[in-house]
Amino acid sequence: MPIKILLDDSPLSNAHSIRGVGTYTRFLAKNLSKNKGIQLSLAKEREPDFKAEITHYPFFDLFFSTLPLIKKTKTVVTIHDVIPLLFPKYYPVGKKGILALMRQRMALRNVDAVITDSNNSKTDIAKYLKFPLDKIQVVYLAANPELKVANEKEIARVARKYKLPKKYLLYVGDINYNKNIPQLIKTLKFLPKEINLVCVGKNFHPHDIPEWQWIESQIALSDVASRVKFLTELGSDSTVDLAAIYGGAVAYIQPSLYEGFGLPILEAMICQTPVICADNSSLPEVALNKALTVEEAKAENFALMVEKVLTWKKEQREKFVKAASIHAKKFTWDRTAKETANLYQEILKK
């Protein structure tokens, strides 16, 4: 008999839908539904007579009550990272947030298992949420399977469409403190003036938060306003366009001070773009030795790696990106779903 799984699909219809949590929920659900050993029901489409054996919450908000205290079934929760607890100064939450965190910790006590994205996050969850290490299962994520290597014609079309500079470094993601965007912008100071920076993400626009103010200040300090381009929205064919934006970049840089996984690293590798990243948290775990890494996430160090990429001959570049692409293709959503399904089976056996 198939295991009856109820998956909380609320991230598909709220603010998480365009973030990593939405991507995770969507691709996990799609691939779990192909598994003959599982009868999957999404919470919002649940039939009245569906009796779930396991409920899976694909996200865990540290500062909002997203997990019920009383569980009606065996329960699995995915916690992608606990980064705000590592940098509390830069993630102020107030009294309500502190109370919500206390409640969420209580709600975690009687879950059957926690899934997380990396061994690094596994260690953090055990430490900061006081959750048993032996009940935390690492299940890696994967790049969007719709991303393909763009050809020269596609790269040229997308460059015209978005008015991209001829030579650019690329970053895809958010602007949270841990993303270290000011140091990324400062990197341009140490590079030839024909090298630009393209940042893709919905929060790269003026708004009244410290993270944006830091970005504006760094642009002014480094005097690189004409060399930075922000793309907050891609067109309707966003996956095709994004693949071409990756493909046209000199290199992709993940400048983060800390990551729970680092999905854009795999995306860039799939699109055969050289990756430069900091050697911290989960990043070396995901990139393995298929990225150029820096020990300290500072602008000068990133610039040195960019200069190295600029010296590569065509054959060197092709060899590097092909090896990285082979590595990235080992991460698949089919594998993610299979390992998740195996965990469901283990829980029911206990």
Structure in words:
This protein has 350 residues and is an alpha/beta fold. Helices cover 40% and strands 15% of the residues. The protein is built from 13 helices and twelve strands. The strands form two sheets. Strands 2-1-3-4-5-6 form a six-stranded parallel beta sheet, sandwiched between helices. A six-stranded parallel beta sheet has the order 9-8-7-10-11-12, sandwiched between helices. The longest helix is centred in the last third of the chain and has 17 residues. The protein is globular, with a radius of gyration of 21 Å. The model has no long low-confidence stretch (mean pLDDT 95).
Low-confidence stretches: none
- What structural class do helix, strand and pairing data support? alpha/beta
Helical content, roughly?
Answer: 25-40%
Sheet of most strands: 6 strands, parallel
CATH architecture of the largest domain: 3-Layer(aba) Sandwich
Average predicted confidence as pLDDT: 95
CATH superfamily of the largest domain: Glycogen Phosphorylase B
Q: What radius of gyration results from the CA coordinates?
A: 21 Å
Shape descriptor: globular
Extended strand count: 12
Q: What is the highest CATH level, the class of the largest domain?
A: Alpha Beta
Strand portion, in percent? Answer: 15-25%
Note the gap between the termini: 17 Å
Number of helices: 13
Q: How do the SSEs run, as a string of H and E?
A: EHEEEHHEHEHEHEHEHEHEHEHHH
Total number of domains: 2
